[in-house]
């Protein structure tokens, strides 16, 4: 018997989805041995400005970005909600589905810095592991001693334990540092600059066809 397969979730506004998301997730899958990454577009992100593209447009971009890539699937349960997307509620619904199998939630180092502001953040590791992708300009030292202690208590140095327990660990993955942000892409569109090296051609074509991010 091999190790149990880790279910890995990757939530985001994806306004738009870009190579920073896709290549980080692919590198993480290689490091951890993930067979599948489930992309979860947010409906109403509680902590951020509201998306410029509609929920349907963001979903369509995510689907286009991963078409033909067997690593990725798309889950719409957050978009189907009319209330704010609290990660904890989504994770609980997945936990009910996967039973005692390992469940992981993928975040960036930027999100790790502010995780103590999330709704019921202290409960996250009761439900899943956290897989943290590297981001340029972010340190692993966290904002308060309490959160730093929390990281130290739960951090593992290799991915091996992730498949041995259903939840409870934090793994800081040495993924490539990709300096790509959706904010930068939207600004470049407004200025009429090329984004060809930042996101897949199918997404670029869709943005142009929908007239997104022009104002």
UniProtKB/TrEMBL annotation:
Pathway: Cofactor biosynthesis; NAD(+) biosynthesis; deamido-NAD(+) from nicotinate D-ribonucleotide: step 1/1. GO terms for molecular function: nucleotidyltransferase activity. The keyword Protein biosynthesis does not apply. It comes from the Bacteria. CDD domains: NMNAT. It catalyses: nicotinate beta-D-ribonucleotide + ATP + H(+) = deamido-NAD(+) + diphosphate. Its EC number is 2.7.7.18. Keywords: ATP-binding, NAD, Nucleotide-binding, Nucleotidyltransferase, Pyridine nucleotide biosynthesis, Transferase. Residues 9-188 form the Cytidyltransferase-like domain. It is an enzyme of class 2 (transferase). Catalyzes the reversible adenylation of nicotinate mononucleotide (NaMN) to nicotinic acid adenine dinucleotide (NaAD). Belongs to the NadD family. This is Probable nicotinate-nucleotide adenylyltransferase.
């Amino acid at each position: 018997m091999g190790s149990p397969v880790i279910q890995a979730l990757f939530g985001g506004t994806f306004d738009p989805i870009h190579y920073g998301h896709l290549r980080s997730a692919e590198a993480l899958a290689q490091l951890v041995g993930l067979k599948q990454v489930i992309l979860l577009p947010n409906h109403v992100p509680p902590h951020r400005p509201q998306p410029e593209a509609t929920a349907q447009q963001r979903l369509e971009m995510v689907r286009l970005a991963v078409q033909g890539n067997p690593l990725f699937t798309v889950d719409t349960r957050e978009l189907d909600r009319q209330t704010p997307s609290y990660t904890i509620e989504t994770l609980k619904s997945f936990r009910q589905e996967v039973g005692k199998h390992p469940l992981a939630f993928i975040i960036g180092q930027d999100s790790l810095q502010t995780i103590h502001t999330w709704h019921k953040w202290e409960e996250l590791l009761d439900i899943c592991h956290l897989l943290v992708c590297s981001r340029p300009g972010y340190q692993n030292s966290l904002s308060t001693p309490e959160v730093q202690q929390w990281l130290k208590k739960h951090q593992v140095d290799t991915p091996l334990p992730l498949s041995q327990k259903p939840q409870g660990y934090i793994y800081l993955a040495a993924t490539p540092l990709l300096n790509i942000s959706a904010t930068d892409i939207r600004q470049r569109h407004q200025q009429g600059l090329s984004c060809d090296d930042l996101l897949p051609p199918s997404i670029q074509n869709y943005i142009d066809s929908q007239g997104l991010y022009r104002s």
